């Protein structure tokens, strides 16, 4: 029963009403109070980290106020909402963003200055939650920002990994991994909810029989039970709502086995607890590559089970009926990682809530929507029937049943046996396995890709049979980014300059940036624009000197490629370009080269041999180039270790050239491409992913295009591609490739880069040699453009002016209109 006294106090006494932000004095008071009473610190002993923590607590109070208000309003309106299921999030540091959302950056800076503290230093203390690998996890976080800002009734579910993505160090040019202890100093943003906890079962057997009411029913007698406990982090939208990111941590049901303890074996008694907690210990560090490991499947099922049980609890709490679940919720599947949800919802409805199969299937397939994030065959999730059946025997039965009904439908449509086998949820050839993308597609009412090109290829290739069967199910939502985090928070000087010219409406409507077009030719504005870039480059140079030990002249062109290291992204094509410049300079032919700093960052999956070798290659080229007095002043190469959101926020504002050079048809969208352009970098890129749409928006004259199209890539393959022909015909290219095996880059070791050399000469799966010349020619154009600073500034301004489409606010609006069909509710 609700406590009426507290309720009335809540609404009338200003606890959750009143203004959004805080005054300078309120911030100072609250900060000091948290330092002393919250942390129990005396000034002489307080560290910078204590001050950060105190400030985070002070701000968290206000953030939670917005969350409480939003939740109240969502409930009062009995709103339709979204549950977003993602195995990965990369929120980045929270404090800076929350200050912006509360519009108190200036006040906080002043409040801290009054006690002799510097806001930037305090912000720098925050350790970010690295709960994702790359673009997919960061996208989920950009979407949280937009969903909160737009007032989408929503909750984001995921996994509270104790160790996030590994910390990368570079030693002797090689990547070394160490554990990411992001929780070491505590986490002021999260709130544990021990009462929100669910049991998750694994293993055992199923048994069918007749229940008390005389109905056929199946019981799953699992052999392991684990508990999932909710940890909530409020995510605040800009000047508006707060939503919750609810992450599940695995715990033992009983932390201690008393029967074993009583028999005297203390260690054995705790072992069970440790085994249970292992489940959420660590994030799998693979982006776009499936490892098929048992623990990974367990993690996926664990968080899906807790999230669905929680969604159902929230639904029933509102006094609604379970067969209306789809009227009140869309559950968005962020890739196939949570796609076991289709079988789990069926299990919950049929086995636990005794709904009949047809009705349950109707609810299920009208509840889920599935976003595909990759076409790479090695990343399409499949689980061996054997492993799956051992861990989730009941789900295997359910999937067989869904499949058998689905295949019957196909038979009724007179589909050929071949086509039916292609579409089946079960792959029979090789080791029998479950095709998770098929399960997600069959179990969802909408399927979307993440850029126009990707969505088209998804329909034409990977899910072609399904798109023919259900054309209306397929749609596109082009990715977007949080321009508030990636411009307002991370590039304050440029943001202020923009606002001076066009006002601040662009913070909530990025299309307003269009107003900058009027100033693209204004020389005074151009100068201010480029001065800010230079300041940002100086700041990045300082960071590079400290963390990578390389001194860079900030007036050089900053040519930047930062993203996961993957062969399809072609960091090694960039290396070939650098070597071509190096050789030209050595031959005395470098007069048309503009002084350039090549900046790389990104993590390689620890088990990905070629990716790790590419990092070593970059480092070796850096050694060669940076030490050579002949090139000094013209070229610099650096690999900045440990790319993460925090580092990204320093890099984008300082970049001149954005490298988006994947082989066409491979990068589903890319989102780094948008962050660079939003900060005024010009793009050199292929017609891949969202590059296509960026180019359409900014104009082809303001984008450096090169390389084959997706269709040309396919044609090249069909015609029988022989990379060695390019090696033989192109003497410059030949000279560069020979460097890889000459020992020049590796202290005489001719074996070190042979795997890369041989891969390129024999297979070259990503067509580097084919695209090489086009890339080199394009780079010559770029170097020429750099020599005309006014032209460059104009293009840079025009890029920013035309980034309106790439706000995650627009993406979320698209999800609302095309998929979710709901009404935003803005907290007042
Ligand atoms: C990815 C794609 O590779 C990116 O192109 C895309 O921008 C991102 C978000 O949609 O998803 N898929 C994936 O598995 N990791 C990614 O970064």
TrEMBL record:
GO molecular function, one term: pyridoxal phosphate binding
Signal sequence annotation: none
Catalyzed reaction equations: [(1->4)-alpha-D-glucosyl](n) + phosphate = [(1->4)-alpha-D-glucosyl](n-1) + alpha-D-glucose 1-phosphate
A Pfam family annotated for this UniProt entry: Phosphorylase
InterPro entries: Glycg_phsphrylas (IPR011833), Glyco_trans_35 (IPR000811), Pyridoxal_P_attach_site (IPR035090)
EC class (word): transferase
Alphabetical UniProt keywords: Carbohydrate metabolism, Glycogen metabolism, Glycosyltransferase, Phosphoprotein, Pyridoxal phosphate, Transferase
Record Gene3D superfamilies: Glycogen Phosphorylase B
Sections of the chain in a coiled coil: none
GO cellular component, one term: cytoplasm
PROSITE patterns membership: PHOSPHORYLASE
Modified residues (N6-(pyridoxal phosphate)lysine): 675
EC number per UniProt: 2.4.1.1
Protein's GO biological process: glycogen catabolic process
Obligatory cofactor(s): pyridoxal 5'-phosphate
Protein origin, superkingdom: Bacteria
Task performed by this protein: Phosphorylase is an important allosteric enzyme in carbohydrate metabolism. Enzymes from different sources differ in their regulatory mechanisms and in their natural substrates. However, all known phosphorylases share catalytic and structural properties.
Protein family: Belongs to the glycogen phosphorylase family.
Protein name: Alpha-1,4 glucan phosphorylase
